[in-house]
Each structure stands twice: as C-alpha cells, then as structure tokens.
Amino acid sequence: MDTQLLDLMKHRRTIYNLGRNVQIPQAELYQYIKAVIRHTPSAFNSQPVRAVVLFNDNHEKLWDIVETALEEKVAPDAFLRTKAKISSFRDAFASILFYTDMDVVQAYADNPHLATYQYQEYNWAEEAQGNAQFAVWTGLEENGLGVNIQHYDPLINSAVAAQFDIPVSWQLRAEMNFGSIEKPAAEKEFMDDDQRFKVFD
C-alpha cells in the first residue's frame, strides 16, 4: 500500500516552540491555505468553514486581544505564567482563525428536503471543521512548518470580530498558529489498540 498520507500524518504534531524563520512568501501561504480548505470535504458539500489568515501586526493583535481578555479572568498570581504562554503564541509567524458560518448550517438544517437530517447538520459542520483544520495542519507540516491549535473562543469572540470585521454569522471555532519549528515535539504515546478498534472478518 502507498503510505504517503500516513507518513505525513505521523509527522504532524503539536509544536509549541514556533518562530518566524519562514521562507515561504505570505501570498503563497495564503493561496495554499485557501486551496486546502476549498478541497476539504463537508456534508452535502455545504462548505460551512471560513478562515481568516493573520500575518505580521494582525497576528500580534490577535494575541494582544487574547492576553487582555485573560488578564481580566486569571488571578494576578497566575497571570505571569499565562502571559508567557500567550507570548509564545505571539512569537509564531502567523495565525489562522477558523470559523463556521452558522447561516449556512441553519439553511441546511431548515431545508425541507433534508428534514431527516436537520439536527445532524450542526454535527456535520463540526466534522467539516475537523477536516479543514487537520488538512491545513498536515499541509503546513508537509512544508516544514510547525503548528499548534488553541481554543480561546468564546472569550475573545466579540473583540476579534470587531478588530477584523468578522460577519455576525461566523462562529469562531479555533485559533491555529504556525511558524518555523524551534523545538520539536516530544515522543507521542498511544493507548492500546484493543481499546480503540474492532474488526469483523
């Protein structure tokens, strides 16, 4: 069997130590990210995933927003550790905001021809998110970049929406950082196969 995809999946890891030593032009990265998401599958080809790619000062503004939001929520004696964590995300080359367009989800849920599945469209939109995030993550790793995903929504939603002019119907689902790999990930552990898989032949 061809194992090219599997090999890429094995290489894909969460990288927390990211830098800005990236040689790929920003415009090329943006076009690549768009193409990967465009070709990511979604139920009924509903295409509910939206993405906002932030470079340079805009990337830093995102993590300034996160830091400000958390400073209001985290106890002062614990905030220094939180601030250091946010600074590590700010040190990355760029970030991607992944959104779900809830107008699309609702339209499919309300479609009388899909009445049997109307409550599933919300679950399928999440599947589309997972597909898109995994595909982009793996693709960036294939190109020598490190990636991590964060979830500060809904704490930052309104401030981010105001800063980047996000449509009301877009619901923030994840914040992905990427950049040069400054320190590789540790070894990954796996649970026993018999706790995860069954086969009937």
From TrEMBL:
Keyword Cytoplasm: yes
The Nitroreductase domain, residue ranges: 10-179
Cellular component terms (Gene Ontology): cytoplasm
GO molecular function, one term: oxidoreductase activity
Compartments where found: Cytoplasm
GO biological process: cellular response to oxidative stress
Keyword terms of this UniProt record: Cytoplasm, Oxidoreductase
Record-linked Pfam families: Nitroreductase
Classification via PANTHER family: FATTY ACID REPRESSION MUTANT PROTEIN 2-RELATED
Name of the molecule in the record: Nitroreductase family protein
Lineage: Bacteria, Bacillati, Bacillota, Bacilli, Lactobacillales
